[in-house]
Every structure is written in C-alpha cells, then in structure tokens.
Amino acid sequence: MPLARSLSITSLSGLEEWDEEFDLEDAVLFEIAWEVANKVGGIYTVIQTKARLTAEEWGENYFLVGPYVESNVRTQVELIEPTNPALKRAIDKMNSSGCKVYFGRWLIEGSPYVVLIDVAFTAWNLDKWKKELWDNFSIGVPWFDREANDAVLFGFLTAWLLGEVGSQCEEPPHILAHFHEWLAGLGLALCRQRQLPVATIFTTHATLLGRYLCAGSVDFYNNLADFNVDKEAGDRQIYHRYCLERTAARCAHVFTTVSQITAVEAEHLLKRKPDIITPNGLNVKKFSAMHEFQNLHAQSKNRIQEFIRGHFYGHLDFNLDKCLFLFIAGRYEFSNKGADIFLEALARLNYLLRVSCVCACPALCVCVCVHVYQKMDTAQTVKERFGKKLYESLLVGQLPDVSKMLSKDDFTMMKRAIFATQRQCQPPICTHNMLEDSNDPILTCIRRIGLFNSSADRVKVIFHPEFLSSTSPLLPMDYEEFVRGCHLGVFPSYYEPWGYTPAECTVMGIPSISTNLSGFGCFMEEHIADPSAYGIYILDRRYRGVDESCNQLTSYLFQFCQQSRRARIIQRNRTERLSDLLDWRYLGRYYISARHMALAKAFPDTYFYQPHDSDTAQGFRYPRPASVPPSPSLSRHSSPRQSEAEEDDDRYDEDAEAEKDRLNIRQPLTLPSKKGPALPYTLPGANGEKNGATGVKN
C-alpha cells in the first residue's frame, strides 16, 4: 500500500505564511495531556522537551493541563498563585464548586505554567458525567475500567476549566486547546458539543486499536483497509476507549499525528486523514557534548565493561576490548518492539562473530542477583603490597628486583582467588530472579534459540529487566550514559508510531537499526539518500516476511561488526551531525503550523488561511557523504579485531570530514516570512507527490 502524504516533513510547502496582523498576544494556549508532570510513557518526553520552545513562542499565555499526582508534584512542581486574572477567577470558582485545581510551574526547561486537576477528588460526579456522556455521544464506559473512568473525569474537568476561562474573560477570548491522546480527548469533544469559543487540536501518538491489533500477531499494515474496526475493538473489550479516541479525532478542528505511517493507520482506523504530520523532536542541547561525545562514549563503555566483568564472574573467557555492545530497550511488548526478531537474528549471528549484547526492557522482578568481586579485592591487595615494595626500592636508589616484589603468600593468595572464581554452571542470562520465568516471553525465546552464554557461543546475552538508574546497585548508569557506552542500538519494531529510542541514539552519535514501519525510520528515509552511511539502518518489515526481515537484520549486524574501529568512529561522527534534524527548533514548526491552522478554522474573522498548491517547490534529501562511506566492504579488518596496522592508516581528519558533510547536507529552501521564523518549502524527495496545504494571503 503506497503511503499517501499529507502535510509531512517533506512537504513543507504547506506551512503557512502569516501576515503582519497575526498576533499571539490576544490568544491563550492550553496543552492538555494525562502525562503533564506525570511520567507514564513517551508523551511525557514529547511535552517535556517541547515545553521550552512553546513557552518562548507564547510567553505568559501558555499553560499545560494535567492530573494532580501528589508524589510527582512534590518533586517536579512549584505551586504558586495563578498569574492570569481570568484563569485565577476560573480556578477559584471551580475550587468553590467542589473541585481541587492547583496552579504552579513545572520545574523543567522553560519552566512552563501548569494547571493540575485532582481527578479523584471529584469522583462523586462520575455517574452523572457518564450519563451525560451517554446522552450526548452514545458512549458507555464500564465501571471496572479505571483508566477509562479517569479519562471521563479528566475530560469533563478540562472542558469545565476551558469554559470557565472563556466566561471569565472581559473580551471574547481566542483560546486554543491542544489535546494529546485518547485520555484527554473527551475534553475536546465536550468543547465542541458545548460550542465553547475554543480552537481545538487533537494529536494521536498511537492509535489504541492499532497497538492491540499488532500485539495480536495479525498482518496489520497489509490489511488496514479490511478491518471491521467496531468488531475488532469490541472483541478486545476496548470499544468504549476506541469511541472516545475516534470522537476526539473527528471533532477536532485540526487532527495531527506523529508520522506518516501512523497517518495511514489513523485514516483507516479513526476514519479521518490527519491534517498535519507533527514529528516528535528532542531538546538536542540536553544531549549535546560538543566534540567530547567520543570521549563520553569511551568512559561509558568502560562502566559497561565493569558490569560485564561482574555478570560473567567466573566465566570471563573472552576479551572485552574486542567486544561490541548492542542493546534493545523500550516498553515490554515482545512482538511490537521487535524483541522476537532481534533475538532470532542474534542466534543466527552466533556463528559469525563474538559480540556482547545487552537487552534492557522493564519487566516484573523481585530481587537483584549481586556478585562478589573477590578477584578485584585480591588484585587490590596485591597491588598495594607491590606498590609499597616498589616505592621502598626506589627510595634507596636501586632498580626493583621483580623476582622479590611478590612473596610466596602473594602467589598463594592469587591462586586461591583464581580457583575460587571457577564456576561449573553456565553464566547467568537474567540479572534478576523473575516471577514465573517459565512464562516470560524473552526468557522463553532465549531457551528456544539456545543462547545460554556458553563458552562456545560468540554472542553473549544479558537480560536486565529493570529501568536503568544511576542509583542501581547492579548497573549504576542512567539511560543516557548507557546508550553512549554502546556501539549500536537495535529497534526492529513492528509497531512504532515514532520511536524515541533510535532518535536518542542519533543525537548522542550512536548508530541504530530501525524499521520502515516506525515513524523515525520513515522520517530518515525521506530525508537521507543513504541512511546507512550516517549510521541509520532501516529494516524492511513492511514488504518482507518475518524470516526475510530476520535475515536482513542479521546481515546488518554482521556488516556493522565487520567495520574497522576507524570506520565506526567516522560513522559515529556522521550520526551525531544529524542531531539538528531532530531538534525541536526545527520540528517545532509543525506544531506552530497546526496551531495557526486551528485558530484560522475556529476564528475565521480574525485569522485567515487558504489552501495552495506546491508545484513550484523543489524537494531535498541528504545525499551520501562526500568522503568514502564506512562500508564494511572497505574495512580491511573485521571488528572487534583491531590490528596495529590500522594505526598506520592515513589519519582521520574530523574537521575535514565535517566540512564535507556540511557542504552536502543542504538546508531546505525557505520562504520569506514577515512574521515568525522562515519555514522550509519542499516536496517529497523520491516520489514527488503533490499535496494541498494551507497558507495565508498577504
């Protein structure tokens, strides 16, 4: 099925030019999501990283709305008095009517204002509001679905808040409300049903039904047009949730989603084509390490090696300096996140290379398996004795006699340490004791493919079923540090509307493997002529079967491991130079466009736009690097083996390589704008489809 583009990253001609009269001073933006100051999933990262840019654009007229969670408020929010008079009166009125609404600053970059609503405090209204939901929308919510009940309470309370703000304004307000995901979507539908003076945007970051269908091992993307969506949602007991999501998508002035692949999905499942694609960005400055990121890679890699030494205590029969570290991380969805195909590819790679692989996915666990580092203690003791004797020998002006530096007791101690570290059993795979490990999908798959970390295995597997934290006694590293220390991130997801994990790898200069079913993979394919030259490998899971995709992934892993150390350094530098492409400073303009479009639709007397064609625009794609790409076929030595001869190669000049890439990576053509930043003006790179888009007549 061809991907029909709407206003996407490669059809930037649709981004509006607003005339001189467009002004945000009389407009107020409310961004509403269940994950405001409440980390649940990826939407938290979207809102948190985008907040600074949005706060700079809207200033004092930008407010985030989310649920009040006391444990989060204590550490993330500074409660203050509302600064906006109309908003203060609205909050006071709601509080006097039996609600609990708090106002403060979220302690993140940009310090945006937040309005936090205590949903549990108004639970006594649930039955009344459910009846109103049924009377107005014919949507019934079962009593046992707590998450849906919270969505009902949150939706009615946010609609109440927006209505009160509008009524408390002295002049007719221009309120813009941006709702994220189905948990917040009911508030949008209520705003439209009550005809509030609010311009609305609904963004779906992943469709509910799509996630459930993909988890059920169906041929999802090739049968999108054939699904009976009502029946499929009912069979999975999520029909009421699906109705809330679909109602929000259909009622919004502007409907957006995060990637082109999700836009196709939303068009078939939610029955509305998204108006604008709003890709997810990152605050690149947060990850920016200037020219030190290669050094940070080495430092973090050393910390991972220390963990590997402890994990393989008594079984360390391989050289860590000749190992590559691969990893997969994310929500514990075995098939959707591609853990199944990754493990199968590792089994096929087992006969090819010696690789150390770390798998980090959150799962259910009970206790930590901690190893005793007896070898390290013994070595430290011997080191102290050796150092003292060496120091005394130098003080008297004599060269040390090596045969006398270590006593018989020292040799005895070292031999005992060697014998004590010998283990008859296999080295562990999982770092924790798992509850019902016989039913765990990752451990079951590892047993099936036979990757038991035996001495004959060239692929070593570690399953760390816990969120990474610098306070962990086992692997004391934050996720960012861990990613920097690895060589390759592998994310062969079958269902991935965007994909923050490969994006985070990119801005930290770590190559990654993604798929053409992920938003990130499609985004990079549209922008880069040869993604693999920049360390972005795109796996085909759309038009190939599982076995073919697994073979392709195995080939990518094998080719990556064949690269020389110098080639990997060049590739990491190129990967890091793509980070600006994922910066909110660049991608935030799509949210700006969506907001302008919504204001123009809701308040046509004040804001105006008209569709226009984009025939005259010229597309762009990042070409292959000017220098020789780090192709495995050009690497004389396979990795992790590195010969001393490599040091005699012509030296790698980072500045010269960067200058060559800068000359090749062209910025998109921009249209002059009298107000606001210049907006890129392009067409799709490869297939040249035409798109209608929006604009403003000067």
TrEMBL record:
Residues 633-642 have a biased composition (Low complexity). Keywords: Allosteric enzyme, Glycogen biosynthesis, Glycosyltransferase, Phosphoprotein, Transferase. Pfam families: Glycogen_syn (PF05693). It is an enzyme of class 2 (transferase). Signal peptide: none annotated. Residues 645-658 have a biased composition (Acidic residues). Its EC number is 2.4.1.11. One of its GO terms (biological process) is glycogen biosynthetic process. One of its GO terms (molecular function) is alpha-1,4-glucan glucosyltransferase (UDP-glucose donor) activity. SUPFAM superfamilies: UDP-Glycosyltransferase/glycogen phosphorylase. It catalyses: [(1->4)-alpha-D-glucosyl](n) + UDP-alpha-D-glucose = [(1->4)-alpha-D-glucosyl](n+1) + UDP + H(+). Belongs to the glycosyltransferase 3 family. Transfers the glycosyl residue from UDP-Glc to the non-reducing end of alpha-1,4-glucan. Glycogen synthase participates in the glycogen biosynthetic process along with glycogenin and glycogen branching enzyme. Extends the primer composed of a few glucose units formed by glycogenin by adding new glucose units to it. In this context, glycogen synthase transfers the glycosyl residue from UDP-Glc to the non-reducing end of alpha-1,4-glucan. Part of the GYS1-GYG1 complex, a heterooctamer composed of a tetramer of GYS1 and 2 dimers of GYG1, where each GYS1 protomer binds to one GYG1 subunit (via GYG1 C-terminus); the GYS1 tetramer may dissociate from GYG1 dimers to continue glycogen polymerization on its own. This is Glycogen [starch] synthase. The gene is LOC110487454.
